[in-house]
Amino acid sequence: MPVVLLILIAVVLVFGIGVLVLNRRRAGTAQPAVTAERREVPAPPPKPSLGKPSTTVPAPSTDEPVAPIEADEEISAEELDAAFEESLADFEAEAALAEIEEFEAETATEPEVLERPRFRDRVAKARATFSGAFGGVRGRAGITAESWDELEEALLRADVGLRVTNGLLEPLRARVKSKEITDPDALLTALQGEMKARLADSDRSLRLEDRAGAGPNVWLFVGVNGVGKTTTIGKVAAQQRAEGRRVLLAAGDTFRAAAAEQLQTWAERSGAEFVRGSEGGDPSSVIFDGVQAAAARHCDLVLGDTAGRLQNKSNLMEELRKVRRVADREPGRVTEVLLVIDATTGQNGLVQAKEFGEVTEVTGVVLTKLDGSAKGGIVFAIETELGIPVKLVGLGETIGDLVAFDPDEFVDALFGE
Ligand SMILES: Nc1nc2c(ncn2[C@@H]2O[C@H](COP(=O)(O)OP(=O)(O)OP(=O)(O)O)[C@@H](O)[C@H]2O)c(=O)[nH]1
Ligand SMILES: [Mg+2]
């Protein structure tokens, strides 16, 4: 009798497995039918915005013990088919859930905390320009003609400019000649000191007059196309808001379609007020409206965007002169005109600075994209040759990636410290 029972169990098992294999084959060949059924799997919760899906689908595990088939249990082909489809549905649901979780992890927006980025972490490329030369200088037993060549080349490649490079190296040559400096390490330390000293005396503070009852301060942002004016305004707005000031952004770039929308997005992100005009309208009237609105709403500061322009287009430069004049009318006071320069454009930035400075009385430079550039040396050229202080530095594209320019930290970062 037990032998008969065993045979019976074996027959049922073989039959069951046969049906299972048959079904799998059917599923493989009859693709459209399976896809159709797949669509019937309850749809996963919608992707964005979703917190965690409220229901979790039990995860079928391939390691889970399969329930033993009882010998006397009648298992039809349909039941086996249904069981297989059910576990397929579970598997599909789990895959969908995993996909949602992966999507959420990828798209989770960073909270907009203004965490100050460090020069050291962002100026890797600028540092690389110097590190090869410094390595070469250190690698020699003494200070040779090659050491000087290497230093000079590195400074020029970093866009320090010929005049400033000579200005930095000449006093060092004299100190080496007089035997005050005798070894390579001491030479590099002395160069580091010279570079810091060059940038030491500038007043880099942003002017904001807080006279009671007075109208809003106006900071204008000027520069050539695509240097980062609008982005910088967004970053500055966030910083000023974080310091508790009421800020209004005025969309003085009426030239480019979507420029106002871009600024509006920054206004929303930073919690600033916003004023715009019509596309193609007079930028000075937008700035005027902005100042009026800011005065009415008791704002401390108006940040005025302007359209990018080439410094050699005299009509556009004239337009900028007018924007400045209008912004400075009561109740407004222009307390900063910030020339935004893209650090990757190198020495060309110097030419821009000259022209813009003449037209709008630039009070400071914002050097953007220092994170992606090997041209950090332009800082020295701008300050030494033009006497315009670099006040802010852009170290990335996000709202927190703007820092007050700290020359010591910058020079140390170039030296890999
Ligand atoms: N890596 C990096 N990118 C920056 C920085 N500042 C701005 N950008 C990018 O530069 C590009 C141009 O920025 P915008 O702010 O539109 O420049 P703009 O000067 O207003 O341009 P126009 O209005 O067309 O003249 C954008 O892709 C910015 O994200 C920075 O400090 N680092
Ligand atoms: Mg812009």
UniProtKB/TrEMBL annotation:
Entry's localization field: Cell membrane
An annotated Gene Ontology molecular function: signal recognition particle binding
Keyword Transmembrane (UniProt): no
Domain named SRP54-type proteins GTP-binding: residues: 389-402
Main localization (coarse): membrane
SMART domains: AAA, SRP54, SRP54_N
Pfam families the record matches: SRP54, SRP54_N
Keyword match Metal-binding: no
Biological-process GO terms, alphabetical: SRP-dependent cotranslational protein targeting to membrane
Disordered as annotated region, ranges: 31-65
CDD domains (alphabetical): FtsY (cd17874)
Ranges in a coiled coil: none
Membrane topology qualifier: Peripheral membrane protein
Keywords: Cell membrane, Cytoplasm, GTP-binding, Hydrolase, Membrane, Nucleotide-binding, Receptor
GO terms under cellular component: cytoplasm; plasma membrane
Family that this chain belongs to: Belongs to the GTP-binding SRP family.
Protein name: Unannotated protein
Organism, scientific name: freshwater metagenome
